[in-house]
Amino acid sequence: MSAFTWSVLAVLALVTGIQLWLAARHVRHVERHREEVPEAFRSAVAQIAHRKAAAYTIAKTRAGMFDALLAAALFLVWTLGGALEALDGGWRALGLSPLLAGTGFVVSFLAVSSLLELPMDAYRTFGIEQKFGFNRIGLGLFLSDNLKQLLLTLLIAAPLAWVVLWLMADAGALWWLAAWAVWMGFSVLMLWAYPVVIAPLFNRFAPLDNEELRQRIERLLSRCGFASKGIFVMDGSRRSSHGNAYFTGLGENKRIVFFDTLLNNLDGGEIEAVLAHELGHFKRRHVAKRLFSMAALSLVALAALGWLSGQPWFYAGLGVSTPSAHAALALFLLIAPLAGFFIQPALAAVMRRHEFEADDFAAEQTDPSTLVRALVKLYEDNANTLTPDPLYSAFHDSHPPAPVRVAHLLTKIPG
Fold first, then answer.
1. Which of 21, 125, 137, 370 has the highest count of CB atoms within 10 angstroms of its CB?
2. Ranges of each domain in the chain
3. 359 is catalytic
4. What is the signed CA dihedral for 410, 378, 226, 193, rounded to 10 degrees?
């Protein structure tokens, strides 16, 4: 094996080892604190709910440990195990044009990868979520959702792969710059189209019919200077008892969405406070900042792919004997998560800062104690652990730990 191959194997082992070590720390920490509700939550969170959150968190984390091992195994099968080489050979044997065969190769690689994730998705849904009383989806709807997701992946990936492979073949040395422009245009289009084209394929959205709540929300929107296409309720209860709220879309296509489960569990003031937090992301331009960060990272990634695609050792070191644009793309999709793993803590830290900023905005628009009350209910209803391992949380979590977040909000209460 080449030096490059050994380097990749070393990074794969390091990444997998760190993932397993962090997860084991998290499990031990949550287990040690499962019998004691943090002091700030003792009056609001029952002991039995705290134990449930601990058990739920441990189950999910252990599933994540298996995911890490499975991902490492699949990486080896696809590369040194010869699966990509065999898939490439199969498409070449059809006698299609290089562009058409390459597109078929990339799309089939993505389709097989999606199908290989299905057993773990089923275990999470019908094992973990079912065990802890969150799952409400039946087998038929589960299979229908996954079939839709697969078809969407194929419908979106096929033309996108065709364009990128065409650029790699015909756009010269700076093809990656043109591909980046295409990718960013596609990303912005998806942000705009998601609320009205994709989301309705999976859920039903109805205008909020609670007149008192609607007027309360509209007053908040007016104060915040937020214009939207409407306030909608999503039938999240068809699939899960977890609750959430979000705003989505871009430009004139923005809309506010509440899970019906959230509306059933919070009062009007709490719903307003949760929405004020979500609007804080809009007012503090977090969506634009994250889009800019994604643009910068994708530009660097495509520039790296542009260089790697011209290196014969890149292909040979990962089990592909015949260099090609489509093989380079598939190999890059496999190794990118290894590189991304090391910048994940920085990205998570930025997102946690955004959460604090959104909380600060919500505290300016509503009573911060009301937001605290809403968050405590959501932590309990969703069985979010109140005692995550600090290092695991710093590495993975996009939201601050519950005690830290609540303590921050309590400092915003006057007097």
1. 370
2. 3-193+284-410, 205-278
3. yes
4. 150
